[in-house]
Amino acid sequence: MVAYMNEEALEKTLKTKKAHYWSTSREKLWLKGESSGHVQIVHEVLVDCDEDAVVLKVEQKGGACHTGYYSCFYRKLDSDDLKTIGKKVFEPEKIYGES
To answer: What helix, strand, coil percent values describe the chain, rounded to 5?
Structure first.
């Protein structure tokens, strides 16, 4: 998945070894999996050459994507055709309620 992380989110992630992010839409800090229980256990944090981006190597518990897939990158663009290639691991309405 791709998510925004501010300084507080990074500090909490490093301290707890669970991925925390900053929600730009809700304007609040959130623990990945706080609603679903599908947390990300952080094993390694990589920093880019400009020190303005990080990659978290995580152990994903359950699905990472709010749509129910293990990964947010569950579709592949082949020519002009979008194909689902990922594995759905949960039904969002059972966790988040009806939308």
So the answer is: 15, 35, 50
